[in-house]
Specification:
The complex is a heterotrimer of chains A (about 240), B (about 230) and C (about 270). With about 240 residues, chain A is α/β, with parallel strands linked by helices. Chain A has a domain of about 160 residues: Rossmann fold, CATH 3.40.50.300. Helix content of chain A is about 40%, strand content about 25%. Chain A is built from nine helices and nine strands. In chain A, the strands form two sheets. Chain A has a six-stranded mixed sheet with strand order 5-6-7-3-8-9, sandwiched between helices. Chain A has a three-stranded antiparallel sheet with strand order 2-1-4. In chain A, helix 4 packs across helix 5 and helix 5 runs parallel beside helix 6. The longest helix of chain A has 16 residues. The radius of gyration of chain A is 18 Å and the shape is globular. By secondary structure, chain B is mostly helical. Helices cover about 75% and strands about 0% of the residues of chain B. Chain B has ten helices and no strands. Chain C folds into two domains: about 150 residues, D-Maltodextrin-Binding Protein, domain 2 (3-Layer(aba) Sandwich); about 110 residues, Periplasmic binding protein-like II (D-Maltodextrin-Binding Protein, domain 2), CATH 3.40.190. In chain C, strands 1, 2, 3, 4, 5, 6, 7, 8, 9 and 12 form a ten-stranded mixed sheet that branches. In chain C, strands 10-11 form a two-stranded antiparallel sheet. The chains are: A alpha/beta (about 240), B mainly alpha (about 230), C alpha/beta (about 270). Chains in contact: A-B, B-C. At the A-B interface, strand 5 and helix 3 of A face helix 5 and helix 6 of B.
Chain lengths: ~240, ~230, ~270
């Protein structure tokens, strides 16, 4: 089974209504790593993730996987900033991606129950997903994303609306998944989180990648003026 | 006011004595309308969902036409269906005129746009919610429609019930294509029209109260069976 | 769950359509049906000749239309001119006179136009026109309506020039009577419908008896040469029954509040 990585973006950009949301961007996402996409609000983090995942329109340039587009789509997962809950029970929400690919209902529900327990949702299996708390919803989204064992997982500021405890729980699971071999690309504006989790950093500013490299290098010796200002805590306009 | 009281007592009397004719026309009313609702739902619900998730050039016009068809005057539909199924018409050989079957056909034509329109609106909202997720999960169009239909089933039930409401009270079309023939195509609404025409308002009102009562009972039954409004459940 | 509903509904529908062995569809006018006579005749017909007569109660115009289209096997109407035109055009085989009733003039109890003492129908209508009291007309080109128009014409009055006191409703006999009752207006009705009407309000029968108000009903089988599917033999059997002695007894004997409504005048061949 060929890996879908590396993912290569060449001069890729997304334009909407005359405005460039992101790009042009040249970026290679290699086979291994925990990439954090960081930058001020409005810098295009969401647009970049969606461009990579195929939710955003490729207005210019190209977004190429190691395999065909169709093949690559099956091996990815995406966690939205505001988790999208289906109007179903928790166990059915988590099992949904498996049902799509032909897994039988019983088997799917069993796997979903396992994952739910792993993420601390074991007690909530039969509750409607819409009544969960913010943290629980995000954990559900994560379980749903991981249940198909994707090669790459995109996350768009998953802990933005969560408290410290929920954040820690989610970070723990992410690290587990990473160590189990899942490639992770995650957007955040939380510096501490970036330091805790990342192996490499993509720093975004005004829709362009200003710096891209190992996490160590970025945090100790940022090259660009904007990155330095950002790390200092200044407001970037 | 006196007429209304007389109507209530007429209704009461008919029910208490298990009036045979009342039972016959009531049963026929429900046969015709429930059949029409079943067929109309089978046609309208998936179409409404399909319209919500598909983007194509003529989409705006299709939706506009669909919404406009909701306002089709039933009597015009009846006339149209009559012309089609008259012996001198294209489908005359089927001999369906003045039978409950053609009444069902007329009612299907009347209620399917209504069901499809409500379904479309409900599914469209749900699709807006699910859009990014279903795209991200790489679903096929067919999977999307099935998922939306299932998750949106409560709203779809409302669509079907709206169709039921429109059909059970309809009289113009089925009067023309059914002929209101005693013991053959007479239903509650056409019987009410007949009694009103004879000036027997008490009986007409009585039948009307029974019609409304049955519609309420049916709706209640459906809501109880689908366990809506039960604390926190969808 | 939806499937079994359909199956069940289909079964019900089919069972509703399986009828008695011999059945015939006859279009009759609202004035005939509202008299209540059909409730007496139909069971007798079923018993005597085993024929299930399915009545479509419609206006004269629609009855003729149904006959033209071949959607019914025979018609029973009361509009000589329209019947002749129907036969001329070849839609029916022949007409057979069965019975007659009469038209009457109905109006508010206090009779503001004073037609109660009129000499004949034409002068009664002239009085109404002069007084401009509200008058409700069938307005639906039915046999009754055509009769009414002919009467206005016989009094040298043009009903298309009447003012707002003349209200043309375009409805059947019952609905028209309802409207007249609601407006407390004058109206021309056939006696049978009036006697059987349940919402008289303040109206009363004010004028009748002029021979010109005579209303002949005729039976016309739809032409099988034009529509091969019509049950012409059954139509003929029904016609035979309608001119029979048993029919005569039932029709002449039908009363409401002691008043006879119809007079059987069929001639046996």
């Amino acid at each position: 089974m060929k890996s879908i990585l590396p993912l290569v973006l060449t001069g890729a950009a997304t334009r909407k209504r005359g405005k460039t949301l992101i790009g042009p961007v040249d970026l290679t996402v290699g086979a291994e790593g925990f990439t954090i996409v960081i930058g001020p609000n409005g810098s295009g983090k969401t647009s970049l993730l969606q461009l990579m995942h195929g939710l955003g329109r490729v207005s210019k340039g190209s977004v190429r996987w190691n395999v065909s587009q169709a093949e690559a789509q099956r091996q990815q997962a995406y966690v939205f900033q505001t988790p999208i809950m289906m109007r179903r029970r928790v166990v059915d929400c988590i099992a949904y991606p498996l049902l799509l690919t032909g897994t039988g209902r019983k088997a799917a529900r069993a796997r979903a129950a396992e994952w739910a327990t792993r993420l601390g949702l074991g007690e909530a299996l039969d509750r409607p997903a819409t009544v969960l708390s913010g943290g629980e919803k995000q954990k559900l989204a994560l379980a749903r994303a991981l249940i198909r064992k994707p090669e790459i997982l995109f996350l768009d500021e998953p802990c933005a609306n969560l408290d410290g405890r929920a954040t820690r729980e989610i970070e723990t699971i992410l690290l587990e998944a990473y160590r189990a071999g899942t490639r992770i690309v995650m957007a955040t504006h939380d510096m501490g989180q970036a330091k805790r989790l990342s192996t490499e950093i993509a720093f975004l500013y005004k829709g362009m990648i200003h710096e891209y490299g190992s996490a160590e290098t970025f945090f100790s010796a940022p090259k660009t003026h904007e990155a330095q200002a950002f790390l200092r805590g200044d407001i970037l306009e | 006011m006196n007429d209304i009281l007389q109507g209530l007592s007429a209704a009461f009397h008919l029910i208490i004595t298990f009036d045979g004719e009342l039972a016959e026309i009531t049963l026929r009313s429900f046969q015709v309308t429930l059949s029409a609702v079943a067929i109309g739902s089978l046609l309208g619900l998936p179409f409404g969902a399909w319209l919500a998730v598909n983007r194509f050039r003529m989409r705006r016009y299709t939706i506009a036409v669909l919404n406009a068809l909701m306002g089709l005057p039933p009597v015009v539909v009846g006339l149209f269906v009559y012309i089609l199924f008259s012996r001198s018409g294209p489908f005359g050989v089927l001999g369906l005129l003045f039978t409950p079957t053609v009444m069902i056909i007329a009612q299907v034509i009347i209620i399917t746009p209504l069901i499809a329109s409500i379904a479309h609106q409900a599914i469209r909202e749900l699709w807006a919610e699910y859009h990014d997720l279903l795209l991200s999960l790489n679903t096929t169009k067919r999977q999307r429609i099935i998922t939306l239909l299932w998750d949106g089933r409560r709203a779809l039930l409302t669509a079907a019930l709206a169709g039921f409401g429109r059909a059970i009270g309809e009289v113009g079309a089925i009067m023309i294509v059914g002929g209101n023939i005693d013991h053959a195509t007479r239903v509650l609404t056409t019987a009410i029209a007949l009694e009103t025409g004879k000036g027997d308002f008490a009986l007409a009102l009585g039948l009307g109260f029974i019609l409304i009562g049955l519609a309420i009972v049916l709706n209640l039954a459906i809501h109880i069976l689908s366990r809506t409004e039960q604390g926190g459940r969808w | 769950m939806r499937f079994s509903k359909i199956a069940l509904a289909t079964a019900f529908v089919m069972s509703a359509s399986i009828a008695v062995a011999e059945e015939i569809k006859v279009a009759v006018t609202t004035s005939f049906h509202n008299s209540g006579l059909s409730d007496i005749l139909l069971p007798a017909i079923a018993e005597d000749i085993g024929l299930d007569v399915q009545l479509l109660v419609v206006g004269t115009g629609q009855a003729l239309r149904l006959g033209e289209a071949g959607d019914v096997d025979a018609i029973l109407v009361h509009s000589r001119k329209a019947e002749d035109a129907f036969l001329e055009a070849g839609y029916g085989t022949h007409r057979r006179e069965i019975m007659y009733n009469d038209f009457v003039l109905i109006g508010p109890n206090d009779d503001p136009a004073k037609i109660g003492s009129a000499e004949n129908a034409a002068s009664a209508l002239t009085l109404i026109s002069n007084a401009e009291t509200p008058f409700v007309s069938r307005g639906d080109d039915s046999g009754t309506h055509k009769k009414e128009r002919a009467l206005w014409a016989s009094a040298d009055l043009d009903d298309s020039t009447f003012g707002s006191w003349y209200r043309s409703v375009g409805a059947g006999m019952g609905a028209t009577l309802n409207t007249a009752s609601g407006m407390n207006a004058y109206v021309m009705s056939d006696r049978a419908s009036w006697l059987n009407f349940g919402n008289k309000g303040d109206l009363a029968l004010l004028f009748s008896g002029d021979p010109v108000l005579f209303n002949q009903y005729a039976f016309i089988p739809v032409n099988p040469k034009l529509h091969t599917h019509v049950k012409n033999d059954l139509a003929n059997a029904l016609e035979e029954w309608l001119v029979s002695d048993h029919a005569r007894v039932l029709i002449d004997g039908y009363t409401i509040n002691g008043e006879t409504l119809f007079t059987h005048n069929a001639v046996a061949e």
